[in-house]
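Much of the work behind modern protein science is quiet bookkeeping, done one molecule at a time. The protein below has been through that process, and both of its lines are reproduced in full.


***
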Amino acid sequence: MIAFLRGRVLDKFPNRIILDVSGVGYEVHVPLSTYYEIGEAGSDVSLRVHTHVREDTLQLFGFLTPLEQLLFERLIGISGIGPKLAVSVLSGIDSRELVVAVRRADVARLIRIPGVGKKTAERIVLELKDRLKDVAPAPEAEGAQPSTGDRLRNDLISALENLGYHRPLAEKAVDASHKSDGGATFEDALRSALRELMR
């Protein structure tokens, strides 16, 4: 089983990269969060890998963080959730936010993830609630009041999600626009983030 790969990004597509490891190209499926963080083609990257073997296929799934890999492996352990849906879940919500949503039984947040219906969201909560106690953020972190900047960022991301953009894409656009104008009003910041998305 392949558990780890270090190499150079030969090519990248949403949810899939080709990793050149000493002249051998590995196709690795990744969540969008990993896709955006690994850099462009030519970048060096190290990935934790889950090798998924079925009768007719052998697929590699790569993750930048231990938490992402842990959540993926626990998601595919749920009846009815395969690797493709597990990657979609991790692409549609930040890993830490997923842990908090499960702990709070926040089905409404989970069904906002593309491809996740109410029954699947309820099953994720039911199956994972007790199994994520060891990896959940500390209670004080969950209950901490966000700063004004964090509230603006969260509001902007929520607005972009309501417009149909995937969360990782919305987060990237909001963060990029915030760097150029950190003191913008909500309306100006939203316009700036939309401009980033149009590039």
Confidence is low (pLDDT under 50) at residues 138-147. Residues 35 and 174 are 17 Å apart (CA to CA).
